[in-house]
Specification:
Oligomer: single chain
Structural class: alpha/beta
CATH class: Alpha Beta
Number of domains: 1
CATH architecture: 2-Layer Sandwich
CATH superfamily: Ribonuclease H-like superfamily/Ribonuclease H
Number of helices: 5
Length: about 180
């Protein structure tokens, strides 16, 4: 079975996206049947809006570009980072961008999951307070890349997509055990 997961890292100036393709298939050897899982990078990038542009125009850009992105990628599942509060003025504009993102997902009828930053860090590194570089290195390792995806927002989006994949796999494993 193949599943395409789109990870989204919400932002008003830069919204990161990353898509992974995950496969689970049964393998038979001389002693047992077992499931094998693989994950590979499909694409990644960012949607950017200019700082001096009116907020309404920036939100329209995010809205239109997300619709185009979803039409092109056609994901089976979308994973979104939950808001993390650190500077109130920044959090409000990110919340507005995230609202547009959630609207687009609703219009597209796409299933989604949400993860807080500590959940993402723990899923990739085993430690909820991991540094940004530790998470980025884990993304590169999990996707068998010899580079860290750039910009950071795109790497974060891939980390979010991978977290969704790990959670999907652990849910399936706990059901089958």
């Amino acid at each position: 079975m193949e599943i395409k997961i789109l990870g989204l890292d919400p932002g008003i100036a830069i919204l990161g996206f990353g898509t992974i393709i995950c496969q689970t298939f049964s393998k038979v050897d001389s002693t047992a049947n077992f499931d094998v899982a693989s994950v590979k990078l499909s694409e990644f990038g960012v949607i950017e809006t200019a700082a001096k542009t009116p907020l309404s125009d920036r939100l329209c850009t995010i809205y239109n570009d997300l619709h185009t992105l979803i039409d092109e990628i056609q994901p089976d599942l979308v994973a979104v980072e939950k808001l993390f509060f650190y500077r109130m003025s920044h959090t409000i504009t990110v919340a507005q961008a995230r609202g547009v993102l959630m609207l687009v997902l609703g219009q597209a009828g796409l299933p989604y999951v949400e993860f807080a930053p500590p959940q993402i860090k723990k899923a990739l590194t085993g430690y909820g307070n991991a540094s940004k570089i530790e998470v980025q290195e884990a993304v590169a390792q999990e996707l068998s890349l010899d580079f860290i995806p750039r910009p950071d927002d795109a790497a974060d989006a891939l980390a979010i997509a991978l977290t969704a994949w790990f959670h999907q796999n652990s849910a399936v494993e706990s059901i089958s055990n």
